[in-house]
Design brief:
The complex is a heterodimer of chains A (112) and B (114). By secondary structure, chain A is mainly β. Helices cover 0% and strands 56% of the residues of chain A. Chain A is globular. The chains are: A mainly beta (112), B mainly beta (114). The interface between A and B is medium-sized, with 20 and 25 residues.
Chain lengths: 112, 114
Amino acid sequence: SQKIEQNSEALNIQEGKTATLTCNYTNYSPAYLQWYRQDPGRGPVFLLLIRENEKEKRKERLKVTFDTTLKQSLFHITASQPADSATYLCALRGAGSYQLTFGKGTKLSVIP
Amino acid sequence: DTAVSQTPKYLVTQMGNDKSIKCEQNLGHDTMYWYKQDSKKFLKIMFSYNNKELIINETVPNRFSPKSPDKAHLNLHINSLELGDSAVYFCASSQVKRQGGEQFFGPGTRLTVL
């Protein structure tokens, strides 16, 4: 069965450092991989999308990589700030599919 | 101008009651979804409608019935509520084919069954 693993339930880093979150998947060939941010008491908010034929995507301090051979995506936040503290969710979608399958998320805490 | 809105935000009710949650999106999207997020924060798809047609219907008790009166609205009715139904329910919308299928979520409805 399809499986998505975000390998850390929680990650603590010092302000100013780069946070790196990992998303691994098995039994899946996603056409799209997405990252969302969720703050307590709120709905997830879309951050970045990367397609299967793309290696890397950037948006301001965010960078996502997608390695279909390793079946892995890395999500980086450079120069992290306390305001980046949130839960980050990885989500996969197959080509032509309406369905997004979410990982369980990684709770990031940026310590001042 | 909220993109995806849900009502109510909080719902506290007794076991056995019937309740409804409403969702509206003003983004012009053609696809809407209901998700359940349990106490362990896992976000699980329940239903999806595309242009008022049910396209995703995951293994969910028959007590849950979605209804989409038009493309901008998706409601969720729950009969005979049980303790295990307590969770946060999120509505979302997307325009799958034109864009990358990124989803826009509502603020959630926290359902507590006593």
